[in-house]
Amino acid sequence: MRISIVGAGAMGSLMAARLAVAAEASTPGAVGSSATRVDDLLLYGRPSPHLDAIQRRGLVLVERDGRACTVPVRASSDPAGIAGSDVVLVLGRGRRAAALLSHP
Questions:
Q1: What are the tens digits of pLDDT across the range 87-99?
Q2: Fewer CB atoms inside 10 A, N or C side of the chain?
Q3: Buried b (16+ CB within 10 A) or exposed e, 13-25
Q4: Is 44 helix (H, G, I), strand (E, B) or coil?
């Protein structure tokens, strides 16, 4: 399954990190059929230093108990990457949702 997350803010980044961890931990047949596995994940956001950092270093996921791990996530500011997604999650502020979906 190909999933795109539109909005690389706090909620979009958290969702991307959680899905990336879940996808990495699953093996074929372990969590549903191949139709329900996450095979491709894209985090889409506007060009920003935050998006640049995700592209260079991944996302740091810090658990409540203080454990942290760095999760590699494919991130882009090119909306063409969203095309062909099976699922698109839009996680942006309501007033910015339209801007997130428009080409810069």
A1: 999 997 777 666 6
A2: C
A3: bebbbebbeebee
A4: strand
- Using CA atoms, how far residue 39 sits from 2, 66, 81, 86, 87, in Å, is 6, 29, 14, 11, 12
Domain that holds residue 49: 2-101
Q: Which two tokens stand for residue 66?
A: 């203080």
Task: Please return the burial class of 33, using the count of CB atoms within 10 Å of its CB with bins 0-12, 13-18 and 19+.
Answer: exposed
Q: Which amino acid appears at position 38 of this protein?
A: V
- CATH number of the domain residue 80 falls in: 3.40.50.720
Give the helix ranges, DSSP H, for 33-76: 49-57
pTM greater than 0.85 (yes/no): no
> CA of 60: how far to CAs of 52, 65, 77, in Å?
14, 14, 20
